[in-house]
Design brief:
It is a single chain. The chain has 353 residues and is α+β, with helices and mostly antiparallel strands. Helix 1 packs parallel to helix 7 and helix 2 crosses helix 7. The protein has two domains: 162 residues, FAD/NAD(P)-binding domain; 130 residues, D-Amino Acid Oxidase, subunit A, domain 2 (D-Amino Acid Oxidase, Chain A, domain 2, 2-Layer Sandwich). The strands form four sheets. Strands 1, 2, 11, 12, 13, 14, 20 and 21 form an eight-stranded mixed β-sheet that branches. The protein has an eight-stranded mixed β-sheet with strand order 8-9-7-16-17-18-15-19, with helices on both faces. It is 27% helix and 26% strand. The protein is built from eight helices and 21 strands.
C-alpha cells in the first residue's frame, strides 16, 4: 500500500490548483484523471471582477483578484510557460441609458479601482460596434487553460504524482483515519470532478445546478484589440491572431456536444456586435460545475472525515480556484477556518435529512 497525504480526483482547474498548492506546502499528492471531456479544457478562462447589467462586484473580488494576479504570475515563472494575460474587459455601451448608468457607477465607491470610462474606444472600433464608447473593467484577465493544465500535468507526471485511469468510487474504502483506493492509502480523498461531481454517490446530495456553455473559435479579419469585449457575449483575442467567443447558458441539454440552438444564439449575438465578416473555425461545448446559490463546494464530508470536495466553482473557476485552493490547504494542513459561504457545512442538513 502506497501512503500519501492527499488523493485528488480530477485535473481540471480546481484539481490542478489544489494539487499545486498542496504540493507547494510539502504534501505528498497523487492526482487521478481519465481525460474525460472537461469544461476546464474548453473554457475561456476569463477573470472578471464586475459582472451583469448592474455592474455587480464578484463575490470576494477584493480578495480573489489581487491574489490571482500574484499567483498566476508566479506560476508562470515556476512553470516557465506563458498562459496568464492581464487585460481590461471592454463593455461597449448599448444605449444612451446604459452609457449614463455605467458612467455614474464609476463614482460608486464599491467599484473604485474596478471600472472606468474607456480611453481606447478607437482600438476596438474597426471590428465591433461601439459608436457610444464603452466602459473598461480593470483587474480583469484571462488564462489559457489548456496550456496551464498541460504544464501542471507535465510536472505531476515528472514527479510520479499523476495516474491516468478511471476512478470508481465503489472501490474506495473509508475509515475515520484513512481513505484507501486500489494501492493507495491517503489521509483524504478529495473530489475535484467538475460537473461529474453531481454523480458522485458521496456528494450527489449537494444542490448542484450545472449549466452548459458553448464557445466558438472565430477568424475575424483586421487588427486585434487590446482587451476582452463583453456585451451579452464575449470576444477574446488570442496571441495567434484568432479569437474565441461565447457563451450561452443551457440547463436542459446537458450533453458535451455543441448544439444548433447554441450556434444560432451565438451567431445572432455576434452578428449584432461584430461589424466585419467572420468565419467559424471551431464550435465546442462544456458543462460548468455550477451550484444553487452560486457558491462553491469546499470542505469535508459530514459523514466521512477522510473524504473532501473542492468543486462547484461554476463559470468563475479561473478566478476562484487559486484563492480557495489556498484556503482549503490552510484548512487541511493548519486547521484554519474555511470561508462559511464556501464550506459545505452549510448544507449538512441536506445530508442528514
Amino acid at each position: 500500500m502506497q501512503k500519501i497525504d492527499y488523493l485528488i480526483v480530477g485535473q481540471g482547474i480546481a484539481g490542478s490548483m489544489l494539487a499545486w498548492t498542496l504540493r507547494s506546502r510539502g504534501c505528498k499528492i497523487r492526482v487521478i484523471d481519465d481525460q474525460r471531456p472537461s469544461s476546464s479544457r474548453v473554457a475561456a478562462g476569463i477573470c472578471n471582477p464586475v459582472t451583469g447589467r448592474k455592474l455587480a462586484k464578484t463575490w470576494l473580488a477584493d480578495e480573489l483578484f489581487p491574489f490571482l494576479h500574484s499567483f498566476y504570475s508566479a506560476l508562470e515563472e515556476s512553470l516557465q510557460a506563458r498562459f496568464f494575460y492581464p487585460v481590461p474587459l471592454y463593455r461597449p455601451y448599448q444605449s444612451i441609458e446604459e452609457q449614463n448608468f455605467f458612467i455614474a457607477q464609476t463614482a460608486n465607491p464599491v467599484l473604485e479601482g474596478y471600472v472606468k470610462p474607456s480611453e481606447q474606444n478607437e482600438a476596438y472600433s474597426p471590428l465591433i460596434h461601439n459608436e457610444l464608447g464603452g466602459l473598461e473593467t480593470l483587474q480583469a484577465a484571462w488564462v489559457d487553460l489548456p496550456v496551464l493544465l498541460t504544464e501542471i500535468h507535465k510536472i505531476l507526471e515528472q514527479e510520479d504524482s499523476f495516474e491516468e485511469t478511471e476512478f470508481q468510487w465503489d472501490e474506495v474504502q473509508l475509515t475515520p483515519e484513512t481513505a484507501r483506493w486500489r494501492s493507495y492509502e491517503a489521509k483524504m480523498i478529495i473530489s475535484c470532478e467538475g460537473a461529474y461531481g453531481r454523480f458522485n454517490p458521496h456528494f450527489n446530495w449537494l444542490p448542484w445546478a450545472v449549466v452548459k456553455g458553448e464557445i466558438m473559435n472565430l477568424d475575424i479579419p483586421g487588427p486585434s484589440f487590446p482587451g476582452i469585449v463583453n456585451q451579452s457575449v464575449w470576444i477574446q483575442a488570442h496571441p495567434n491572431g484568432k479569437y474565441r467567443a461565447g457563451s450561452n447558458y443551457e440547463w436542459n441539454d446537458l450533453t458535451w456536444e455543441p448544439s444548433e440552438k447554441g450556434k444560432t444564439y451565438l451567431l445572432d449575438k455576434f452578428s449584432k456586435l461584430i461589424k466585419v465578416p467572420f468565419k467559424i473555425e471551431k464550435h465546442v461545448a462544456g458543462i460548468r460545475p455550477a451550484t444553487q446559490g452560486r457558491r462553491p463546494f469546499v470542505g469535508v464530508h459530514p459523514g466521512h472525515s477522510t473524504l473532501g470536495i473542492f468543486n462547484g466553482l461554476g463559470s468563475k473557476g479561473t478566478s476562484m480556484a487559486p484563492f480557495l485552493a489556498k484556503q482549503f490547504a490552510d484548512f487541511l494542513v493548519d486547521r484554519k477556518e474555511l470561508h462559511p459561504e464556501a464550506n459545505i457545512q452549510r448544507f449538512h442538513t441536506l445530508y442528514f435529512s
